[in-house]
Amino acid sequence: MNLELHPLTDRWLDAAVELDRLALGGMWTRSGYQREIDSPNSELLILTSDSVNLPIALGCMWAILDEAHITLLAVHPDYQRQGLGQAMLLALLMAARRRNLSWATLEVRASNQVAIALYAKFGFTEVGKRPKYYPDNGEDALILWRRGLQSDEFAQELAVWKQQISDRLARSNWSQTVFS
Ligand SMILES: CC(C)(COP(=O)(O)OP(=O)(O)OC[C@H]1O[C@@H](n2cnc3c(N)ncnc32)[C@H](O)[C@@H]1OP(=O)(O)O)[C@@H](O)C(=O)NCCC(=O)NCCS
């Protein structure tokens, strides 16, 4: 199965809203996605495949001063645990580095152990908490932070992750040119 990484465009807008509903329970509306497409400070990426009619993964990052705010990360429920979440996170971090941003930050539900484990693999650490941040159930948000995006060490880490993730995707039968 082939895999392509590209910015979200109008062509995929309705499909992105559907994936958001499936994977995130409807976090952003159609007009929310449209705003992101139109914003020069937003990097909204999707992974698609010829063989799947919805995007397989979505990721979004806002460039604010020298920070990358990761605002969205989701993989289609039928395609989780194949390395695609890592691939999208890596793509966002690479985009942040290209934009000369120095830090990456995000909020995650305190109960979302899967996402927390994923972010930890990429060097995110907890720096604080927003108590009762999520209105649906009053859950706390953890604030995660990743420094050093412009360092030589980070460039080396990116190269290692690219190789590891490419191998992981290949094991799940994704033929991809995303990171080549
Ligand atoms: C979080 C999410 C994006 C991960 O995507 P994924 O494609 O399944 O993740 P990957 O296959 O790339 O796995 C990456 C790492 O995440 C962690 N992970 C993923 N699924 C896991 C699970 N079921 N249990 C424990 N850890 C898990 C592991 O550390 C894994 O690395 P490993 O495979 O080397 O063990 C996906 O589960 C998702 O879309 N969840 C719903 C939306 C969401 O919670 N988004 C994050 C909001 S902050």
Quick description:
The protein has 180 residues and is an alpha+beta fold.
List the helices and strands and how they pair.
Blueprint: E1 2-7, H1 13-24, H2 30-38, E2 42-49, E3 52-64, E4 67-75, H3 84-98, E5 103-109, H4 113-121, E6 125-134, E7 139-146, H5 152-171, E8 175-176
Parallel strand pairs: 1-8, 4-5
Antiparallel strand pairs: 1-2, 2-3, 3-4, 5-7, 6-7
Coenzyme A (COA) binds at residues 23-24, 73-75, 80-86, 108, 112, 114-115, 117-118, 121.
Number of helices: 5
Biggest sheet, spatial arrangement of strands? 6-7-5-4-3-2-1-8
Radius of gyration using CA atoms only: 16 Å
N-to-C span: 16 Å
* CATH class group: Alpha Beta
Structural description of this entry:
The chain is α+β, with helices and mostly antiparallel strands and 180 residues long. It has helices spanning 13-24, 30-38, 84-98, 113-121, 152-171; strands at residues 2-7, 42-49, 52-64, 67-75, 103-109, 125-134, 139-146, 175-176. The chain has five helices and eight strands, in the order βααβββαβαββαβ. Helix 3 runs antiparallel to helix 5. It has an eight-stranded mixed β-sheet with strand order 6-7-5-4-3-2-1-8, with helices on both faces. The chain has one domain (2-173): Gcn5-related N-acetyltransferase (GNAT) (Aminopeptidase), CATH 3.40.630.30. The chain is globular, with a radius of gyration of 16 Å. The longest helix has 20 residues, at 152-171. It is 36% helix and 35% strand. A hairpin with a 4-residue loop joins strand 6 and strand 7 (139-146). The structure holds coenzyme A (COA). Coenzyme A is lined by residues 23-24, 73-75, 80-86, 108, 112, 114-115, 117-118, 121.
